[in-house]
Amino acid sequence: YAPISPFGKNAGPPLAGGKHILGGKGANLAEMSELGLSVPPGFTITTECCDKYCNEWDQTLPPELWNQIVASLTAVENEMNSQFGSPENPLLLSVRSGAAISMPGMMDTVLNLGMNDQVVEGLADKTGNARFAWDSYRRFLEMFGNVVLEIPRSLFEDELDDIKYEKGVNEDTDLTAEDLKEVVGRFKKVYETMDMTFPQDVLEQLRLSIGAVFKGWMGDRAIKYREVEQIKGLLGTAVNCQAMVFGNMGDTSGTGVSFSRDPNTGSAELFGEFLINAQGEDVVAGIRTPRNISELKGIMPDVYEEFVRNTQILEKKFGDMQDIEFTIQEGKLYMLQTRNGKRGGEAAVKIAVDLVGEGLITKEQAVQKVLPEHLDQLLHPRFPDVEMKEYKNAVMTRGLPASPGAAVGRIALTNEQVVANKEKGIPSIMVRDETSPDDVEGMYSAEGILTARGGMTSHAAVVARGWGKPCVCGCTSLSVDEHGGEIVITLDDGSQKTFKEGDFLSLNGQTGEVLEGEQAVAPPAITGNLKTFMDWVDEIRDIDVLTNADTPADAKEARKNGANGIGLCRSEHMFFKPERISKVRQLILGDDKQADAALKDLLQFQREDYEGIFKEMDGLPVTVRLLDPPLHEFLPSVKESAVMAELAKQLGTSVHELTEKVESMEEVNPMLGLRGCRLGITRPSIIEMQTRAILEAALNAIEAGVDARPDIMVPLVGKVEEFRNQKELIQSVAKSVFEERGKSCAYKIGTMIEIPRAALTAHEIAEEAEFFSFGSNDLTQMTFGYSRDDVGSFVPSYLSKGILQDDPFVTLDTEGVGQLIKMTVERGRGIKPDLKIGVCGEHGGDPRSVRFFSNEAGLSYVSCSPFRVPIARLAAAQASV
Ligand code: PEP
Ligand code: MG
User: Fold this and answer.
1) Would you say the pTM of this structure is higher than 0.80?
2) Is 569 noted as a catalytic residue in this protein?
3) 353 belongs to a structural domain
4) Residue 216 · residue 107 · CB < 8 Å
């Protein structure tokens, strides 16, 4: 294995393996130094070492690795012309974690490493700035204590607050060198009270810090974050040890964080913050209020210009918007790190489109830059009209617009409350003073996040943006009383409003506005940049994206979203309307005459529905599935006496007799009972009615000038004989309809593949069927033997125990169910090489499953719910690149 990769001016080329081995941060540092940007020198200890540290080395650093670390350190000393641990000319280091995938705020950093009782004096002498030296030392004591020895940060913060109070000052920067010396003394006492020793030996500091970063990879916070983000397959984190440069050496020094473009809107201007005379964590922690990056131009024009030039070089190199940390030490700019910046949905699309326009990337690359979650955000509800009086009147105050989108929910003040709400299906707005990594679960479950403190790069802002959660932060007119269970908002006119936990609140993450109550929201439209982008997506993708739509309204919505047709029309969904359900009940429970009468009415309803759908889908295929679910789903509950009495009256029978009949139809395992084609075979009159409705509707639509393309699909086939039976029935009805009308139309008869036996005998079924569509919901149910309706009782525990990696009803189990799918495709196309094969289960809208269907299974199309169509289009295009 390769343990160490140096970077910096004279470091030479980095180790191979990129991010996977060096971590994102390490790979970027190596690349920045190769581009000739001024990066403080250092070295990266690889992710392979982390893996071995956690799994092989028993959480210790072996001597041969340690020797190499010390040798790399010497090279850094030479380049910086200083020595680690030397009081005369000290080198200080930063030690930071950095995995291949960025995990903002989840991992650990130790700054100013290499300070001790002698070095602090030496540094004070050398820089002539005692305040700076003691400030650096007290920062180091706090970070080292917290990150490496796990001493609670609050113990240090309390001491600092006490001293500030005693000295009568508000800001840290108002403390003198003598004050800070006192802080250092008190911080050392904190170590003592915790029974810990602060190592004066600087090499020991380094050894412990590297170990702590590696250990942090297996800490609860990091594990939870990876779980939520579904980050898998990483070796571990790398450790970057780098020469410190100082932003707190007076008024010609400073530090900041900036994006090369606006991560909310995507507009091509710098977006960031900096502080003069400060160190990195001051910006992130929100203790001092940072200044807008544009102000740097006036203060240090040369540095600003160099920074702008650097952002251009980096964007060109990485072909993407960058998130950059920098420090200015006595007028000299140092680039500390760069990475592809997290962004909201709107920005993701605009940046992708702009980068193509600027010639930095191709359309194919652009398509990879927008994540399915980004589209999801754009396709989420927004406030319909922010100019409306009702909207404007509801605005109470403003914070920073940290992450766009409209969020409406009930105020929840704790992680636990948000999670509890989520379990009950109650939407939450998480309201906090500021968020910390301990809040990630609640943040993930909330509709939106509101904080009183913290800037645009605070924890809440970065995490929320990554997840596309609307977020308003730094809302200074908000005060949160977690214990009292309420919040108070000071309005512009100075008056105050109090809200209790559980009250409704709305957030506009685009503008930072905080609104009273439950505001109305509206669906978005595909226009502008999004339209351009989606046109590229369609050019690039290889497979069609159809939709699961049961009504003309759904069909219309899906077509607006770019669907190439309907892959599944669940005809039974049309029966659930109140005026129709009683007809269905008459059909099931009545005598022959009553059943016939009911069928006549249902024929009319269905014909109208299908006609509407054909019109909306003019020129595109419409796959109608014949009745599928168990009959008793349509039956009344015998416990509802009023309903039973009414129905008994309609049918001219007694409640007693009706009850007996309903009970006789109950099944122990309805999902494995009388449903699908079994229903069609035992109750052919229903299929006759449905076939007639479909074909008459098609003929009517064609007469009205519509290009209607009906496909009729038989559900739950396990034996070819079942399919043959239904096919003959459909064909005979078609013959009568065409004779009666003196006209005919083209139509296809196909089947769903959703029973393992159908997959195993796909070659037989392919002889008869004109198309296949995987019912991956049932196929998953029957392959695993997990009841679709009862998985809630054990799947969450399977997921947390790692028995399941994903919920198989959400993301296709490619290993098991996927094999049946591939086998079906092979066997089916062995008989009919051009057989159209798609999928219409929930997996058709899941990006990872779409990749499998497109690339590995070779399907012709996926079909998913209307609002997921754009996401499936994107996933299909990404799979094709
Ligand atoms: C399926 O089983 O995947 C399917 C699409 O049908 P339904 O969900 O209606 O059973
Ligand atoms: Mg099914």
Assistant:
1) no
2) no
3) no
4) yes
